[in-house]
Write a structure and sequence with these properties.
Elements: H1 2-5, H2 34-37, H3 44-47, E1 51-52, E2 55-57, E3 63-66, E4 76-80, E5 84-90, E6 96-99, E7 107-114, E8 123-130, E9 142-143, H4 146-151, E10 161-164, E11 174-186, E12 193-208, E13 212-215, E14 229-236, E15 249-250, E16 254-255, H5 262-266, H6 268-285, H7 300-305, E17 310-312, E18 332-336, E19 348-351, H8 389-404, H9 409-415, E20 428-433, E21 437-439, E22 445-447, E23 452-459, E24 464-474, E25 480-492, E26 499-503, E27 509-513, E28 516-517, E29 525-528, E30 531-535, E31 540-545, E32 550-556, E33 559-566, H10 603-612, H11 627-634, H12 657-665, H13 669-678, H14 681-700, E34 716-719, E35 728-733, E36 744-746
Parallel strand pairs: 2-8
Antiparallel strand pairs: 1-3, 3-6, 4-5, 4-7, 5-6, 7-8, 9-10, 10-13, 11-12, 11-14, 14-15, 14-16, 17-18, 18-19, 20-21, 20-33, 21-22, 23-24, 24-25, 25-26, 26-27, 27-28, 29-30, 30-31, 31-32, 32-33, 34-35, 35-36
Helix pairs in contact: 6-8, 8-9, 12-13, 12-14, 13-14
């Protein structure tokens, strides 16, 4: 490992980081870990760039500062992905800047900088490209009363439109406002299907950069007024019309009702109806994506617990007051995180205040699947995988045609029916917390207090590996206790990026991406290779792998709490400390060589089982970037055999802590154990909360039986929209009709409805 090599006297010239950022060189390092190890090449800071801000919309045009390098030149070129060139400049204070480019993908994008007019690009860094809707509002210009822009020209909507922006964001006294349109051309689902943002025309020229612009829109000229989905760009007037990658402020992407032609304004309903019918015909020719999208969870509780596969839909969020514009009657919606394998489609699931799934068959506020996943999907670049915009083209502008600008919503719902939840299967959960207490996928619990690095779960199905590091706990007086707790968790699936969540030496929670600390100050959601990463404001970290497996990590009481969620396809495909996931607890203590130990083994025997799952250096996913980590875990034993923990804490009635412990922990054995072994009520309380959260999660993930949707009889109606076990649906005929068949049908444990289909 690195620091071994550098203890030899350096008798040759030191290597340079020019063109070498991220590499470990013969005499020194150009990797991010070099700082804390003290082994950076002398010119590391010059060539390996730190930037601020580090992220911006994929639409580009954002000015970012290069923080660590004084580039003595007046001509800067910035090159992204080794091919997209944008101009850079040096400001009056001598600081270097680049402008971000228009991209058709999200995630970390490598860039390089040249100071010799493009001959060489020795300086490098990464830029984070973000979904246009996930960028903070302050970075975009605002369509004041956005609904008015998107309904302009329909019934009774006319007058002025106003655009506002942060004028300091552009260093210019005069600006132009341009209209851009988005299109996808070529044959659907073929190699010859392309996405393009196209400059259309300039709406306002040489307007003062005051931060506000009002106008009365007129229909665009004939060659432009057929573009109905697009965006506005504000850029300094010194640039030519539609010039690419200039400093820009973009609006949100929106329906361009305000510039559509006279035919729309004269009869918006007829115009939109014709568009809706045309869309319906196109849909009939496209492949059916519904067959391959994941089923919705049956209940709101399941949907919010299955964090490896579903994530809050920001357009309808119970934690932000349930403002659900497109889903009346819903309190919360979630989206499937991964796009479907072949067609890159998305699923969306909405729930009412009782926690039941809302179906479009019953209400226009129901869950609608998406031909194009809203977040796009790797490898991006081409339809239908363009983040946000592919989805707009197939699923949103068509909603305007059919549902918002005309009364043809039945056509939209016919092409986007809700999935019910009859084939949804909740994931299985395992958890570790406190002075590590382990709860396996099959529900067995045990305590293993080894000190070292261990395999918590690995699977041959997707090469999933999750490793945990344990370190000694401390008593409140600062001396070491005879128990350990999780201090770091590292994970990878197939050839994905490697994520590590750890407590740093000063007890801050850190997330590392491929050995580099991740900064969440600008973005809380990051699209990575083979996974998505999310951090909440209070540092709950969620890792969502492409297989649908999810990990939640949070710091509590000085230790990490880890929960792993695995879909059913992992049954019989796991091993490690979390056991063999198969519904049978008898084989939980299975060693690497596939022999198993009795589940009635003593804590001392369990210590052997744990030691058997120690990680080896060759397969370790951890980052060893300090002397302490190197000495204790890299050169030291992976399992510290000389450390013998407390196996049974003694409950002494005369112990002054006993009374407080009993009132805090009640009968929770993990809480009692941790209070007595660490002498800390705070540690005990963290353990109690983690245990409670785990029990709540298991309850929320209980499978639910659904009998599927029931229609009302012709010439009659039904009462009830809940199709889960025990629900009753009643049928009533219109006046003058008589009911044949069952008046009431109840969802039974077999998953079938009682009685017979009614008719009137």
């Amino acid at each position: 490992f690195a620091s071994v090599i550098y203890n030899q006297p350096l008798n040759r010239a030191q290597d340079s980081c020019s063109h070498q950022c991220g590499e470990l060189l013969g005499t020194c390092s150009c990797q991010a870990t070099c700082h804390s190890l003290g082994i950076c090449c002398a010119d590391y800071n010059e060539f390996c760039l730190q930037i601020s801000p580090y992220s911006g919309s994929l639409m580009g045009g954002k000015d970012f500062l290069i923080k660590n390098t004084a580039l003595n030149t007046s001509v800067l070129m910035c090159r992204f992905k080794q091919k997209i060139i944008t101009s850079g400049y040096v400001d009056k204070d001598g600081e270097a800047h680049c402008i971000s480019p228009l991209l058709y993908e999200t995630g970390f994008i490598p860039f390089e900088v040249s100071t010799d007019d493009g001959l060489t690009f020795p300086y490098s860094g990464t830029w984070l490209s973000v979904h246009h809707s996930k960028v903070s509002d302050g970075e975009k210009c605002t369509l004041v009363n956005e609904t008015k822009w998107q309904y302009y020209g329909t019934h009774n909507i006319d007058g002025n439109l106003t655009l506002t922006w942060t004028h300091q964001a552009l260093a210019a006294s005069l600006i132009n406002i341009e209209v851009w349109g988005y299109q996808e051309t070529g044959e659907s689902y073929s190699e010859k299907w392309f996405a393009e943002w196209k400059y259309l025309y300039t709406l306002a020229r040489k307007t003062p950069n005051t931060g506000m612009f009002s106008f009365i829109p007129v229909p665009a000229t004939a060659n432009y007024n057929t573009w109905d989905f697009g965006i506005l760009r504000i850029t300094p007037s010194i640039y030519s019309d539609g010039q690419s990658n200039t400093p820009s402020i973009w609006s949100s992407a929106h329906a361009l009702a305000w510039h559509l032609g006279e035919d729309f304004r004269n009869d918006p309903m007829a115009w939109a109806t014709a568009k809706c019918i045309e869309w319906d015909r196109k849909e009939e020719k496209l492949p059916n994506f519904m067959e391959e999208i994941i089923d919705c969870p049956c209940t709101l509780a399941q949907a919010r617990a299955d964090t490896g596969r579903f994530h809050t839909d920001y357009g309808c969020d119970i934690e932000k007051g349930s403002v659900c514009t497109y889903h009346t009657g819903a309190v919360h919606c979630v989206r499937a995180i991964q796009a479907s394998p072949q067609y890159a489609s998305g699923q969306q699931c909405c729930y009412d205040s009782t926690g039941a799934l809302i179906l479009t068959q019953d209400s226009t506020g129901g869950s609608t699947p998406d031909r194009g996943h809203d977040w796009g999907s790797p490898p991006f670049m081409r339809p239908p995988r363009i983040p946000g915009f592919s989805h707009w083209l197939y699923d949103v502008i068509s909603f305007y045609y059919c549902c918002l600008w005309s009364d043809n919503c039945h056509l939209y719902m016919k092409n986007r029916p809700s999935s019910d939840c009859r084939i949804y299967r909740p994931p299985r959960a395992a958890s570790a917390f406190g002075d590590p207490h382990f709860l396996t996928f099959d529900g067995l619990n045990f305590t293993f207090k080894g000190q070292g690095e261990y395999t918590l779960v690995e699977s041959d199905l997707t090469s999933l590996r999750v490793q945990g590091r344990t370190q000694r706990a401390y008593f409140p007086n600062g001396t070491e206790a005879l128990v350990t707790g999780l201090s770091a968790v590292a994970m990878q699936e197939n050839n994905s990026d490697v994520i590590e969540v750890r407590y740093s030496e000063d007890f801050n929670l850190e997330v590392l991406l491929n050995q580099k600390v991740v900064n969440f100050s600008e973005q809380s959601w990051i699209d990575l290779e083979g996974l998505f990463l999310h951090s909440t404001a209070d540092q709950n970290i969620t890792v969502m792998f492409s297989s649908g497996s999810g990990l939640e990590i949070r710091g509590s009481g000085g230790f990490l709490t880890l929960t792993v969620l695995l879909p059913e396809k992992f049954i019989n495909h796991t091993q490690g400390l979390f056991g063999v996931m198969n519904g049978n607890t008898e084989d939980e203590y299975t060693f690497k060589n596939k022999t198993a130990m009795s589940i009635h083994a003593s804590p001392q025997q369990l210590f052997e089982f744990g030691a058997n799952w120690a990680v080896e250096n060759g397969t370790s996913l951890f980052t060893y970037d300090t002397e302490i980590l190197l000495n204790n875990f890299f050169y030291g034993q992976k399992h510290n055999a000389s450390f013998v923990p407390v196996f049974f804490p003694y409950e002494d009635p005369a112990d002054p802590l006993m009374k407080e412990m009993v009132s805090l922990c009640d009968s929770d054995p993990f809480c009692r154990f941790d209070v007595l072994t660490t002498r800390s009520l705070q540690v005990g309380n963290s353990t109690r909360l983690s245990h409670h959260n785990y029990k709540q999660l298991i309850e929320n993930l209980e499978p639910v039986i659904s009998c599927g949707w029931l229609d009302h009889p012709a010439n009659g109606r039904k009462d009830g929209t809940n199709y889960l076990l025990g629900s009753a649906i009643h049928f009533i005929c219109n006046r003058g009709y008589e009911l044949m068949g069952s008046e009431e049908r109840i969802c039974q444990v077999t998953g079938a409805w009682s009685g017979d289909a009614p008719s009137c």
